[in-house]
Structures are given as C-alpha cells and as structure tokens.
Write a structure and sequence with these properties.
Elements: E1 7-24, E2 30-49, E3 54-59, H1 72-90, E4 102-108, H2 118-133, H3 140-150, H4 154-159, E5 162-167, E6 171-174, E7 182-188, H5 195-211, H6 228-236, H7 239-245, E8 247-248, H8 251-257, H9 261-270, E9 275-278, E10 285-289, H10 292-305, E11 310-316, E12 322-323
Helix pairs in contact: 1-2, 1-3, 2-3, 5-8, 6-7
Length: about 325
C-alpha cells in the first residue's frame, strides 16, 4: 500500500457574473441568486499528517489570514473529519481512514478580502486534500454537502465551471452553456472591504431609498431572480452580450465604502472593456475583454493609468479544486 505523506490541491478564484441579493433573513444571511464563474487565478493548499491541526500561510496577503482556529481551512478539516467518521458509522464499518492531526499550508495568489472567495476556495481545497490524505472515500457530492455547511462559496470552489447559486450560494446548478473561453482582467485595489460591512451598507442604502423623505418604514426588496438576459448571453457564447449583462447588487454598497473604485470601473470601460463590475463584495474590479490580445492591452493600460494596485489576466471558466499529481 502506498503511504500518502502529503496532498496538494489547486483551487480557483471565483467571479459573480450576477449577484442578486434579497432582504436579510432571520439568521442574518441574505437569500442570493448568483452566477458563479471560476477563473484561472489559483491558490495551492497542501495537507500533511501532523500531531495536531495547524495552518501556515504564504504568498499574497499571508499576514492578513488568521492562522488560528478561525481559519476556514481548519474548520473544513474538522467538518470533514466528522463526516468521514459519520459515513463509517452509518455503514457500521471502518473506512480505514486515519483522520489524525493535519497541517495545512496555503500558498496564496488569490488576494485576501478582495471579493474573489479566496478563503472559501482554500477551504474547498482543504476538503479535497484531507479526503485524499485520510483516504476518506467521500464522493464529490458528499464533499459538496460538507462544503455547504462550512461556508457559502465553498461548494462552488469544489465544482468550478459556471453555475447558478441559490440560498446563501451553496445550492448549485451547473449553467447550461457552451465551453466558451472568456478573457478577464482583474484590477486589485489598494485596500480591502469586509463582506459583512458591504452587506450592512447595502441594507442601509435600501432602507434609505425605501424610507424616502417622508420617513415611512422601509419596504423589503423583492426576492432575487436569475437574470434571463445573462443566461441567454452565456448560452450564445458571445462575450459582447455577456459583458452587457453583468450585474452585482452589492456594487453600490461597495462603491459607497470605497469611492475610488468608480474611477477604476470608468477607466476600464473607457479603455475598451466589454463589461465591468465589482467582484462580489469587492474591492477587486473585473473587466471582460473581447480576446486574449485585448485583455493584454487592457491590463497594460489599466496598470499604467494608476487606478489600481496591480492587475492580472485570467480566463474562465476553469475546473474546481483538483489534486496536483506529485512531482517525480
């Protein structure tokens, strides 16, 4: 039997091509309808046996990632350990899995608190890596169930591609669209935004608009709906139509907290982007280009315009979390 001494999983960042946000729920979350899109900006997560659970973070924004029990990868490892034990108990059999301590190393390229779900991606990678390391035997559907309990965007990072998310984003349906490759430019901001603060700002903006000058009680916004125009554009495979249909209900809130993003978005559109929006809760700005060459031109021009900290060119959709074969 081969003894596995470490497992590395590569996992992508995500974009929200649509993010429709409903009113706050009793549990504090918001009902969402979103179109997830995985892109070729990857973190790598390595799991190795250890005396106790721990995490090390290197790379982009490593100093901003908690290394203690609040780290989402450790919560993912604990959730998987419980799921593996439960699966064995339900079969009244041992899986043969050794779910002892694990040390997880995260090599980050996805910026922290940037609206790209880097933390959720790392948690998904930890689930896939530990399942392999421990010989847990959980299928992808079973891992997706565990992921949905760990965090809202974790399940999508396992699947990748393009998918419609509902609920908190954890209820997923693959989008019926051709495998068209889209070219994106990501403009990373010199600063960060807190997801809870952006949602709170959205609620305040909506309450202000609904209340009006008369001070009447704010009306709850209607429940979120999937954008038929975006889904039609994705089925067509035409980047021009997709760019026109991009939308994000959180964008006004993100702009209210980080006004400099207005200049970034405007610059990208002036430089020829087919569409522009804030990624998730921000502050990354996302631009769709017509081709690889146009994406390169746009990235160079944005970088020179001084409207962002740095840029990256990515493509999508890409596959979700995947084990990296060991080098020989």
């Amino acid at each position: 039997m081969t003894i596995v001494t470490g497992v590395t999983v590569r996992v992508p960042a995500k974009l929200n091509l649509q993010l429709a946000v409903g009113p706050p729920r009793a549990d504090g979350y918001h009902d969402l309808v979103t179109v997830f899109h995985a892109v070729s900006l990857f973190d790598e997560v390595t799991a190795k046996p250890a005396g106790r659970d721990g995490v090390t973070v290197t790379g982009e924004g490593a100093d901003r990632v908690p290394a203690g029990p609040d780290n989402l990868v450790l919560k993912a490892a604990a959730a998987l350990r419980k799921a593996v034990a439960g699966a064995a108990a339900s079969r009244r059999a041992s899986t043969g899995a050794d779910t002892a301590g694990v040390h997880i190393t995260i090599a980050k390229r996805i910026p922290v608190a940037a609206g790209l779900a880097g933390g959720s991606a790392d948690a998904a990678a930890a689930l896939a890596a530990c399942n392999e390391l421990w010989d847990g035997g959980l299928s992808q559907p079973q891992l997706v169930e565990v992921a949905a309990r760990v965090g809202s965007d974790v399940a999508f990072a396992l699947l990748g591609g393009t998918a419609v998310g509902r609920g908190r984003g954890e209820q997923l349906t693959p989008a019926l669209a051709p495998s068209t490759q889209y070219h994106w430019v990501l403009a990373f901001a010199d600063g960060h935004l807190s997801t809870p603060e952006v949602y709170a700002a959205l609620d305040r903006l909506r309450a202000t608009r609904a209340g009006g000058a008369g001070g009447t009680a704010p009306a709850a916004p209607a429940g979120p709906d999937l954008d038929a125009a975006l889904m039609s554009a994705l089925r067509s495979g035409e980047a021009r139509l997709v760019g026109r249909a991009l939308s994000n209900d959180l964008q006004p809130a993100a702009l209210s907290l980080f006004p400099a993003l207005r200049k970034t978005l405007a610059a990208g559109l002036e430089l020829g982007a087919l569409g522009a929006l804030v990624a998730g809760s921000g502050p990354t700005c996302v631009f769709l280009a017509a081709s690889a060459d146009r994406a390169l031109d746009l990235a160079v021009s944005l970088s020179g315009a001084g409207v962002c900290r740095s840029v990256a060119r990515v493509t999508g959709p890409v596959a979700g979390a995947a084990v990296v074969p060991p080098s020989k």
